[in-house]
Amino acid sequence: MTVRWLTVGAATLAMLVPSGATGGAAPDLMLSPAQVPSALHAALTTDRSTYAPGDQVRLRITLTNTSDRSFQFARFGPYANWKLIVTDAGGHAVDAAPAAVGVVAPHHLHTMGPGSESFADAQGNMWLPLAVWGYTLTAPGIYRIQAVFRPDERIVSNSAPITIR
């Protein structure tokens, strides 16, 4: 077994993964850690561009393997696999309320084949509420939302703008 570490909020969790686990793909066909940032593309979209103060902002996060090799990660669920960064029009970080993550256990070891997509989802729902990450936007203004893939924080999505009016 190999120990891999995941930090969720203030908690650091140990994840045990079978040594050499490749989910059926031959090890030489897997992405190396150095290849990961250039081989994976993250995209974030919102269900609308404009919201009233306090409206539920729903977002969708897609991870695409653009390489010719497989990629494997422990699927913990969207709130543990993805960190969100929300900024205001001045580029200042918006504080999130502490999210109630609780104990996080991996659902399974997920293998993405070459050219495949993986969606952050909760019980089959691919449109996820921003509030679950601890963000409620009530002040009018323009905000930007970005998703960062954990535990490898080198994979960052586009910055999706929204307006609260």
Give an overview of the whole structure.
The chain has helices at 36-39, 78-81; strands spanning 2-8, 11-17, 40-46, 50-51, 58-65, 71-75, 82-87, 108-112, 117-119, 128-129, 141-149, 160-164. The protein starts with a strand and ends with a strand. The model is unreliable at 6-22 (pLDDT under 50). It has two helices and twelve strands. The chain has a single domain, classed as Immunoglobulin-like (Sandwich).
List strands and helices in order, with pairings:
Blueprint: E1 2-8, E2 11-17, H1 36-39, E3 40-46, E4 50-51, E5 58-65, E6 71-75, H2 78-81, E7 82-87, E8 108-112, E9 117-119, E10 128-129, E11 141-149, E12 160-164
Parallel strand pairs: 4-12
Antiparallel strand pairs: 1-2, 3-5, 5-9, 5-10, 6-8, 7-11, 11-12
If classified by CATH, what would the architecture be? Sandwich
Percent of residues in helical segments? Answer: under 10%
**What coarse outline follows from CA principal-axis ratios?**
elongated
Number of helices: 2
